[in-house]
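Renewal narrative, Specific Aim 1. Our central claim is that a sequence can be written position by position from structural information alone. The example that follows is taken directly from our test logs and has not been curated for this report. It begins with the structure tokens describing the chain, in the order in which they were read.
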């Protein structure tokens, strides 16, 4: 499981990225809390606008930023973007410490953070693939997922405690220090050991992906479900922060709730790695499970019971997204797989700028439970889309021998080859199964999949 860590360049990158990711989750937690409690009077709509401003640039600038990542030295480009993010974190921390931060200023910083991230993400995706050979790519993706989910578990909880003890400004400054770990890793690398790999043009990839997906109704259904879940369901900062306030908790309570989501996410990623195939039915069931978990959150009578529902929520979200990710990869023509995955990530990222302001406004006007109820209703709608298509496609049949049992035909890959994810973004890391070492897996029989229609 850890063979990629034997490569020096990847090993120093992994350590630097883990430290930096912890800092990033700390800053995200502090930023949401500042907007909700310091710059506004518990206005979740303002938090939704902040999230939209920060997530929109990576989607809107995908063509330009991909070209820049291909045109310039990626290692030096990442140093520039990480330096810019460091400077923004320092500026935010200082302005908060001296009491000069305002909501319009925070909106400006959110947009600036989004712009820097827009150039940072594609450069990192391309660069990390240069650190390992092709045969180690899947292992590196799994380690990336482990790093991402570990940071997601630690960062929010640490940030919540720090906010209570020393204030929000210091959290941003601590995050600025964590960027030094990434910059140090980049400086320590051995450039002559990098495995340069060319990447196709971003806009062309998306256009080809659109044409292919348009001829695959099952992928269209997957993309619709993922978009609805991403737009209205995955606004955890809004849900957790406003519910923490409803239960009379402070920043530490908010940070702890975020870590509970991460516990469920980590469990979902580990369990996903044990499945031999990615099946459409798991995506549908996972989406329905998210609707149930959100409904339980609406009814939670106490902070502890709400935290427990978040574990189930995180589990269902990651189960849905890892399966959708795997389904898209293993049932797509290998020659077009990268382009379709690029489109998939654009759909997933594009939901936040659309849904976050709406969910935030609902939480402000009608309360957080109503906003979570909206997420449950939309998830149920997404599940209904999947169920309706499965029934309409003629894939459901009565079992040949068992009277009350149904069978569902599977979609076969066009070519049966192992999927090789080529992107190393945080979004891919958050939706990638984490395989356990071979010795920790229970043996299980292998069944031949049925041919689909």
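The sequence written for that structure reads:
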């Amino acid at each position: 499981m850890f063979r990629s860590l034997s490569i020096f360049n990847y090993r120093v990158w992994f350590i630097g990225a883990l430290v930096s990711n912890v800092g990033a989750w700390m800053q995200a937690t502090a930023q949401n809390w500042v907007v909700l409690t310091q710059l506004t009077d518990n206005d979740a709509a303002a938090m939704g606008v902040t999230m939209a401003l920060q997530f929109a640039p990576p989607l809107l600038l995908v063509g330009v930023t991909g070209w820049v990542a291909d045109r310039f030295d990626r290692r030096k480009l990442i140093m520039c973007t990480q330096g810019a993010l460091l400077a923004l974190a320092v500026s935010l921390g200082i302005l908060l410490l001296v009491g000069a931060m305002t909501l319009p200023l925070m909106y400006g910083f959110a947009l600036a953070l989004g712009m820097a991230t827009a150039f940072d993400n594609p450069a990192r995706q391309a660069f990390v693939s240069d650190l390992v050979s092709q045969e180690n790519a899947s292992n590196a993706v799994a380690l990336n997922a482990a790093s991402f989910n570990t940071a997601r578990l630690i960062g929010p909880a640490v940030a919540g405690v720090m906010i209570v003890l020393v204030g929000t400004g210091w959290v941003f400054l601590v995050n600025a220090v964590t960027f030094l770990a990434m910059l140090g890793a980049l400086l320590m690398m051995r450039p002559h050991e990098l495995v340069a790999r060319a990447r196709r043009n971003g806009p062309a990839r998306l256009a080809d992906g659109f044409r292919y997906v348009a001829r695959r109704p099952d992928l269209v259904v997957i993309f619709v479900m993922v978009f609805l879940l991403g737009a209205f369901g995955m606004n955890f900062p809004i849900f957790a922060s406003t519910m923490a306030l409803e239960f009379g908790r402070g920043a530490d309570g908010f940070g702890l709730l975020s870590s509970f989501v991460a516990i469920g996410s980590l469990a979902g990623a580990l369990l996903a790695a044990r499945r031999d195939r990615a099946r459409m039915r798991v995506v549908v069931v996972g989406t329905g499970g998210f609707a149930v978990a959100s409904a339980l959150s609406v009814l939670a009578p106490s902070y502890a019971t709400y935290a427990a529902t978040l574990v189930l929520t995180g589990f269902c979200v990651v189960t849905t997204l890892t399966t959708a990710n795997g389904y898209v990869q293993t049932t797509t023509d290998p020659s077009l797989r990268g382009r379709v995955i690029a489109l998939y990530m654009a759909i997933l990222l594009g939901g936040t700028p659309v849904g976050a302001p709406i969910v935030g406004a609902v939480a402000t006007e009608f309360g957080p439970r109503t906003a979570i109820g909206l997420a449950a209703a939309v998830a149920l709608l997404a599940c209904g889309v999947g169920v309706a298509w499965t029934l309409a496609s003629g894939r459901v049949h009565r079992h040949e021998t068992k009277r009350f049992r149904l069978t569902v035909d599977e979609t076969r890959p066009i070519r049966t080859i192992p999927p090789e994810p080529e992107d190393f973004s945080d979004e891919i890391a958050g939706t990638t199964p984490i395989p356990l070492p071979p010795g920790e897996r229970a043996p299980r029989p292998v069944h031949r999949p049925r041919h689909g229609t």
